[in-house]
Amino acid sequence: MDQSSPAPRISELHDHAGQPVVVRGWVTHVRSSGKVAFAVIRDGTGVCQAVFVKSVVPPEVWERFGQLTTEASVLVTGIPKPEPRAPGGFDLQVSDLVIHGESPTDYPIQPKEHGVDHLLDNRHLWLRSPRQRAIFVIRNEIEQAVHDFYYQRGFLRVDTPLLTAAIGERAGLFETEYFEEGKAYLAQTGQLYGEAAAAAFGKIYTFGPTFRAEKSKTRRHLTEFWMIEPEVAWNDSADNMRLQEDFVAYLVQRVLEKCRPQLAELERDVAKLEKVTVPFVRIDYTDAVATLQSKGSDVKWGDDLGAEDEALLVEDYEKPVFVMNYPKEAKAFYMKENPADPRTVLCDDLLAPEGYGEIIGGSQREDDYEKMIARIKEEGLPLDAYGWYIELRKYGTFVHSGFGLGLERTVAWICGLPHIREAIAFPRMMHRLRP
RNA sequence: UCCCCAGUAGCUCAGUUGGUUAGAGCAUUCGACUGUUAAUCGAAGGGUCGUAGGUUCAAGUCCUACCUGGGGAGCCA
Fold this sequence. Notes:
RNA-binding; CATH 2.40.50.140
């Protein structure tokens, strides 16, 4: 093995054309035509094609090629040459081959269609496929864009606890023993802590995993998912929606700017993403109900909008749609009463186009001490569990609002994925705890 | 929790009104081929038809229960 040659990543091969290098990676395809043989090598940055010419390579190297199997890990020494016929655009004219880790011939993922059950059972191996890599490059770009967006706007990132006492929503909590304190619950949201942090730091956001023990079996649900939750002091509901549309438009823009090859790998219709520009569409709940009724829905004022209603509402628009100011009964206790119509609260859901549904839920928070206590009692929630949260209204209450954006739903929409489970490396669903 | 659907080779599937020895493609193994692109061509191996019970002369096929998974509803991001 040539120890003196550089070992660039495959994406860097163009800087080494004509010079011997060592490529380290995994074998994705092996083909032989008798006296010329090809092995496609993947290293996570791209693929290149190692070319073995029987009359050129040493006999023992030719012999070793014959032992190559899909997903064997290898160190290949050779000279990279631009080659339009080669996958990845580069041939590697091979002089030496070391098989680092062999791979038995029963590798479960083939370059053909598989059922979801099989793919999910083999998620640890499925991640190696080009499509999955494209998704995770885009997810990474979105995560980085989230941090850039808020950093540029002077937000502080605050990490909120995942182990909490019973607070937040009531249903669907994962519980665990917590020493002498009784039960602890995995966080369903960081929002309440985010509100405390907003009073301390002004503009904050959280970015972390959240947990819902709902027995939901749909293409939009996970039991563990990542959420970005900004909370901003002195923002009212209108400010809140402006922040949301700026944010979502920025994420889409960043992916369009940085991830064209990945969008192409996923065969995403980019024209649809290019239409996602501010301002988004705004529809008042009351108007939405009227529109839905005229379209034949039997929804009544006061009902929450079902998935079918949402789809019906969004079908006429090519950009995301805000539905604002829902009836009080349909929404959480912490949302602020709408002064213009006290039957409703100052909130918004943001519905993504193309049937991807709700990606954001946001609201202005109730900042009146007495009204908040009254709402907690109305909902039948245990007042003492919310002691510290209510104190945020006692000591210097403040107008504030915020929202939660579901990362996997956003990734699924931007990538055009048929199911949210592909938007996270190791999805947790009702029937999936491993791998 | 409710509704619908599926389970046959390692993978993806076909299998007729119930009828002899359950098939195909891919993958695997062996052979051929000096530019392959999910290479091609030839040959071979590979099955407790999800589990248990039932109907029948006869069950992959019909019935019941269960198991496993998928899609949707509700709830939400």
